[in-house]
Amino acid sequence: MRNTLVHSLILLMLLLTVQNSWANEQLARCMAEKGWIMYGSFTCSACRAQRKAFGEAFSHITEIECNPHIAGNQVERCLDRKIRRTPTWLLEKDGVEIGRIENYQLLEDLVALTGCDG
Questions:
Q1: 2-114 placed in CATH 3.40.30.10
Q2: What is the tens place of the pLDDT at every residue in 23-72?
Q3: pLDDT tens digits, 59-105
Q4: Where are the domains of the chain?
Q5: Chain centroid offset of residue 96 CA
Q6: What is the DSSP string of the chain?
Q7: Distance between CA 82 and CA 77 in Å, rounded?
Q8: Overall pTM > 0.85
């Protein structure tokens, strides 16, 4: 009986992990297709947490480095877009900002805020 319960719990945890990965993948792909870009910093703990929340799915997200001390930064772009805190998510059309989301966001909140809710 105890082994059956343990096996059931392990199976449930595995199933939830797979569902979570699939949902993260769908969100990341949707945000990328819509053009959402994350302005962040390698040294920013909230940015690290945002990347971690997406897991491997974050590979679909475009991130702009705003820290002037990190190689490959795009500080001028960050200044032009008035990035005051990271992470900041921006959506632009034809060079005009049409969406901005600042600070760390739970993925379920990003689903609603980005219009990636199906």
A1: yes
A2: 899 999 999 999 999 999 999 999 999 999 999 999 999 999 999 999 99
A3: 999 999 999 999 999 999 999 999 999 999 999 999 899 999 999 99
A4: 2-114
A5: 21
A6: -HHHHHHHHHHHHHHHHHHHHHHHHHHHHHHHHHT-EEEE-TT-HHHHHHHHHHGGGGGGSEEEE--TTSTT--HHHHHHTT--SSSEEEEEETTEEEEEEES---HHHHHHHHT---
A7: 9
A8: no
